[in-house]
Amino acid sequence: MRVTAAAPAARRYLTYRVSCAPSFRTSSFTQSHPLLPLNSSSSSSQSKFQSCTTPIIVRLFNTSSPTMSSSSFFDAVKARRTYYQLSHESTIPDSKIIELVQDTVKHTPSSFNSQSARVVVLLGDEHTKLWEEIVKPAVKAVAPAEAWAASEQRLNGFKAGYGTVLFYEDPADVAKLQETFPLYADKFPQWSEHTSAMHQYILWTALEAEGLGANLQHYNPLIDQQIASTYNVDPKWSLKAQLVFGKPAGQPGEKTFKPIDERVAVHGAKN
């Protein structure tokens, strides 16, 4: 294996080009993971490899660069709460909201880097339209008459917010993984749900770090078809959740915790 330094790199990164990659065609796994270990003592193994050039990015430690501590990260985690009382205001400009959404979608991990998440953002009047013209009629059509008053009051609370983020997963990306890696075919739908949950949590935490409040709702599949036609959403996308947010108009409820020792087990700790 030949390793050579590439063109000038950024301060905290070096780029190397590695000349060796397998020419295996026996499984999709080896095709998608070209830098597998070589057994240099085996001539038969060597014959299965052909020369190629693959860039590898290596991050170097830089003590002068600013970094986030785990304590500051968990400050944001602990501050994330469920706010039901919201106003039709935002603590940050729309451009910042869009930036947070884009960063969330770009940097949240997904199984096999499938990047299957899709997001639709509704702000201001479009947010109001969602809850007044789409969700309300859909819920009223199925709610018992005696329960509608309470349901409408709850929906008005969501409508009072400033924006809604619709989280989708694209089944086409999941299907590609199932075809490429049939051994895990039954797992990919579950892993897709994990991916969506991470997107929801990261954006929820990021919005509240900017002084907004939010709550997570699930009115799918009642509203799926109407949303797709109203906002030109691919009808094949699978709607997972709706994150409602706005400037807090009240405080979150009390949060209690089960004993942590009942939920966490540790083995092998030394200090």
Automatic annotation (TrEMBL):
Organism, scientific name: Exophiala mesophila (Black yeast-like fungus)
Cell location: Cytoplasm; Nucleus
PANTHER family for the chain: FATTY ACID REPRESSION MUTANT PROTEIN 2-RELATED (PTHR43035)
UniProt keyword annotation of Magnesium present: no
GO biological process: cellular response to oxidative stress
UniProtKB keywords: Cytoplasm, Nucleus, Oxidoreductase
Domain of life: Eukaryota
Signal sequence, renumbered to the chain: none
Family: Belongs to the nitroreductase family.
GO MF entries: oxidoreductase activity
Primary localization: cytoplasm
Positions of the Nitroreductase domain: 77-247
GO cellular component terms listed in the entry, alphabetical order: cytoplasm; nucleus
InterPro entries: Frm2/Hbn1 (IPR033877), Nitroreductase (IPR029479), Nitroreductase-like (IPR000415)
SUPFAM superfamilies per the UniProt record, alphabetical: FMN-dependent nitroreductase-like
The protein's name: Nitroreductase domain-containing protein
Keyword Nucleotidyltransferase: no
Pfam families named in the record: Nitroreductase
